[in-house]
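To close the chapter, one final illustration. This time we ask the reader to focus less on the individual chains and more on the assembly as a whole: which components sit near each other, and how the overall shape emerges from the parts.
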Amino acid sequence: MKLSVMQENLARGLGVVSRAVSNRSTLPVLANVLLKTEDGGLRLTTTNLEIGLVYWVPGKVETDGSTTVPARLLADLVGSLPGGQRIDLETGANETLHVSAGPFQSHVKGIDADEFPSIQPTGERPTTRIAQNVLKRALEETAFAAATDEARPILTGVLCRFEGETVTLAAADNYRIAVKTIPILDPVGDTSVVVPARALNELMRVLGDTDDPVDVVLAQSRNQILFHLEGIDLVSRLIDGQFPNYQSVLPKAHTTRAVLDREELLRAVRPAALIAHESANIVKLQISANGESGITVSANAEIGDHVGQVQATVEGDGTSIAFNAKYLADVLEKVAADQFALELQGPLAPGVFKPIGDDSYVHVVMPVRTTS
Amino acid sequence: MTWHEAVDNGRATPGATERAGPRTILHVDLDAFFASVEQRDHPELRGKPVAVGLGGSNDRGVVSAASYEARKFGVHSAMPIRTARRLCPDCIFVPVDGARYQRVSREVIAILRRFTPLVEPVSIDEAFLDVTASRALFGDGETIARRIKAAVREEVQLTISVGVAATKLVAKIGSDLRKPDGLVVVEPGTEAGFLAPLPISRLWGVGPSTAAALRDFKVVTIGDLAALDRSALVRRFGKHGASLVDRAHGVDPDPVDDPDGAKSVGHEHTFDEDTADPEVLERTLLAMAEGVSGRLRHAGLKAGTVTVKIRDTAFNTITRQRGLPEPSDLTEPIWRTALELARPEMKGKKIRLLGVTASGFGVKKQLGLFEVEDDRQRRVVRAADEVRERFGTRAITRARLLRTGLPAPFERDLGTAVERRGEHAEDLDSGVARRRKRRDTQPDTAPSEDAFDE
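The assembled structure is written out below.
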């Protein structure tokens, strides 16, 4: 294998694919990036057996070939080279990669490309396509709610429910749930898959702020989902199992509805969260009854306390409710809406956050039972 | 009919006067509780020999409580009913009505709480009160004791015996001394003289084996014990010996603990022989986690934090603490966390002592969207708890804990009212053990009354 690429192109590609490198695997080759010439450029592939990332770097190929080298090292090495520099890559004896960049010469020892697990992302007809910016926003508003601990593996995934011309994304970690419905460009018969949130977080990073579509390939027979963008492929395994019936836990009624400014509430929650952090991380909201009144945001800990006021338009009963400060801050930070409606049914029922003027999103947070 | 003990032999007792001055502690004991409740509610039983403990779903074939009339015939609690019938053919046997006694017990505790927030219920029929700070409001210990006695007699129509002293130990011995309807006040500084003539079996921590061993020292009364050379007892009994002497002098620094203020539940175990065997260490942690979780369930508490304590052969002691993902009262999460905390610290070391403590009961409860806890697991645990409650802690256990020879702390009967303190003093964090006896979560099996009732 012998080819040349531009430093910034290779650096960007390595930055993307190194997210799927597995340094702790029992398979040493998984810590490596697969380099393979293809279509007159260099294809970079990494996988941790859950996610596979493929990135195509344009270049000038002299001799086709392939090898694998430690991904982190190569990424750091290339990253340290000056921008605008042409880099020549050439494989030598004993799987050694010669990296040559102007006055700099490195040799990196690798592992035979045949040992790299095969990733077969391309060449399939997309099941559907979704505008990149639409999917990106939807993922930003949902994926954070997925569980990070493995107590219930199914909750570490995001349910993707394709129904005709929409897909509904739902993520939950037993204390909160985020649901968003977005349009898809090609209709799909009713299908549900659960995609690891870790994979979708990577997808989020590579999706652009453009309405150019990303291709989605549902390969359930292989237990995989594929996302294809210009020059980038992401393959993820699917999570087996039944996602909990989230619809049954979405409250259907409320006794209090407060319409409030998202940023204003976030500004009130932040200082309260600092105090709450010193104790059980509980922030209390007190909502006064009907009218143009306020919400009192408070926190108590041994170290001190905090109270803040937020304007709100309230319909219905006054009530109070306590939330984990992180869950409250998460929904307020991650969801891009100017105004929220907060719907409640007393201190022990789930709190529902709905962006005003956007029926496609709902976020539910379970309260904390306080002793007082 | 009260009795005021005020012997002053001029012997200052260490500990009776602390920096903040002597405490005033009351021990309140309901007289022949179950039997008295039956006599109160069934006038036809009054003045007659009554033994509680027949039939009912919890028939254990033994007397749970005997009225004072029945006691004259030699009937006492824990006696087989057959024996009781033989001793007292005229005895009226009535079934145990645990729920009713619970209710009455709660009424009495409510009265006690009017005098101080520091009420530590020890069992269904006795409690300690620290009234040190209440004296300014209600008068001295004796006055408070009289007012409590009057209130209980008036409002619940039962008599109680009260011991007033500067320590729990002496207060308890005091309440026991002049039953029924007794009041014994032991002034601070007079404890040793008060205790001296009493048999050593009155002391906490003196069980049959300790008593037998003390006979070698020709000890019969508490005074005999107090007069012994401290170092001789330490040589014979170790740390336990030192605390024996202290107690013989009436010294007991143990505070009155409001169980609602309990901060932790824990077990410690000192190995007979220091060990590095991972299987033994892990099994010990499991046994302790099992004990801790059982006590949490018994007290209706869930813990948010697990702490392990590891002491190696060189006496280096480390503690490691971690929060649980969710507050729990189950063995598995507590054990798993304890294991993860302890494993790296135990590696390659000979271990002398291990401890597992659960704390963080104040953790506020995050409600869940989907019920995660396996209901079947919960049912298994509950069934096992019921078996233990009825047939003893050893009746059902984990296969892994079978034949491990792990002693004391895991054998105690959670439902037993009387804390036999001191017997396992070296194995047990007794300060913590005490706190578990919250009677408001007591299951419907009725515990026996204090067998030492007079």
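The first helix of chain A runs from residue 7 to 17. Chain A touches chain B at residues 149, 151-152, 172, 174-177, 244, 246, 249, 280, 282, 322, 324, 348, 350, 364, 366-371 (CB under 8 Å). With these observations in hand, you are ready for the problems at the end of the chapter.
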